[in-house]
Amino acid sequence: MGSSKLHQNDANCVWVDGPIIVGAGPSGLATSACLTQQGVPSLILEKSDCLASLWQLRTYDRLKLHLPKQFCELPLLGFPHNFPKYPTKHQFISYLESYAGHFSIQPRFNQAVQSADYDHILGFWRVKTQDSEYISRWLITATGENAEPVIPDIPGINKFNGSVVHTSSYKSGSEFKTKGLDLCRYNAIPHMVVRNTVHVLPREMFGFSTFGIAMALIKWFPLWLVDKFLLLVANFILGNTDQVGLRRPKTGPIELKNVTGKTPVLDVGALSQIKSGEIKVFQVMEGVKEITGNGAKFMDGQEKEIDSIILATGYKSNVPTWLKGCDFFNKDGMPKTPFPNGWKEKGLYTVGFTRRGLLGTASDAVKIARDIARQWRPNDSCSNSHVILLKET
Questions:
Q1: What is its EC number (predicted)?
Q2: How many angstroms separate the CA atoms of 229 and 223, rounded?
Q3: What digits encode the pLDDT tens for the residues 152-182?
Q4: Fewer CB within 10 A of the terminal residue: the chain, N end or C end?
């Protein structure tokens, strides 16, 4: 794993010959594989007990990739040819496990990073977990944009008599059977509370991936024209979503994604269920005022009785909780420098923060590996003089 004990009397201090990578999701695996190709060892620290914990532990059973598999491949090794165009959650996880095996990637599991500090005197990163302190010239943050669920602070939610669950804990609509796209399959009656605007696009246009069409067009045409085309075709295929309570933003879908990171929703059947009334859209102008024992009150005076609450409130980066003394990230845990140049700051690297999915991850992983390989020297492992200095803190 490219690591060695710093001192025989200090079992908890470990020198890492290559970079320390925080996170064993797709971003961490891709970067480790690219480093291996360049002949550079690395060590992945992962807080959970498995690869890709977001996919394995925090996704619902019926999840499939919404983009064709060619847009979701990691560098150097593609999906098996027999996988469908849109692989399932379980197929994607098996791909990641095979990927790790192919490149002999062996993360250190159950190592939750508590802090990471740069020692300006010695020029090393010190990364502390509950068990050890790891030291290296390079640190790669691969925890991604979706490390922790966002749980909104809604007044009165503790008084609610029904169940409250974030989508990170949601597995199947069977849990809500007879209570009220996945919920409908189990005879639930879901109500979507919609406050903000949202772009809904068909997953495919004329038999081709909408995302693939957009990526092809943007190479030849200005962004505003591509957005206009996508919305024209979307309105033709899906109809006017404003009429079913899903108001579109004034900014086009691709421009909005680039500027804010807000991803368009790719419809895989939910819109037809909204139109048929199986999913009811509950429009509010200013959000939830408070939760009561058996329902919710909204800012505009409306009230609604409900049995269960599912918080589809998204995820956030957790970098600010453990990366110390560094102004490379903003308060939201995202690199201050925008794509495509937000992957490097001195000996600190970021992968999986591009707001461009696995394509952005692959791009960053390749750049990072090449950059570190240019600095790498096979005999850069810690010398005895380093040991003495490092122990003076």
A1: 1.14.13.168
A2: 10
A3: 888 888 888 888 888 777 665 555 544 445 6
A4: C
- pLDDT value of residue 6: 46
Total residue length of the chain: 393
CATH number of 12-147+315-374, picked from 3.50.50.60, 3.10.310.30, 2.30.29.30, 1.20.1260.10: 3.50.50.60
Q: Which ranges of the chain have pLDDT less than 50?
A: 5-9, 177-180, 381-393
Rounded CA-CA distance 336/146 in Å is: 17
Give CA–CA dist 319/49, Å, rounded. 20
Q: What is the pLDDT of residue 210?
A: 84
> 140-175 burial string, b = 16+ CB within 10 Å, else e?
bbbbbbbbebeeeebeebeebebeeebbbebeebeb
Distance CA 192, CA 310 (A): 10
pLDDT the model gives residue 174: 53
pLDDT score at 383: 41
pLDDT of residue 88: 92
